[in-house]
Design brief:
mainly alpha
Length: 72
């Protein structure tokens, strides 16, 4: 479960960046062994709840993009 969305910044990762990270991990450990995660718990480390939800939304979209590439 690679951390593809950061907890130490309020910057929301682009879904393409997240997808690229997931595809890279899949190349190392096999696509069936990858689950997207944050690099640590978001919890109180992210300044606002809206940012945390945006990061999770970007992670969902990035995982969707990576799944399309990896699984067809």
């Amino acid at each position: 479960m690679p951390g593809v969305a950061g907890h130490s910044s309020d910057i929301v990762e682009h879904p393409r960046l997240i997808a690229d990270r997931l595809v890279r991990w899949a190349g190392l450990v096999g696509k069936e062994n990858v689950i997207a995660g944050t690099d640590c718990g978001l919890g109180t480390r992210v300044a606002h709840g809206e940012i945390a939800w945006a990061k999770l939304g970007a992670m969902v979209e990035g995982a969707r993009l990576a799944s399309e590439e990896l699984w067809g």
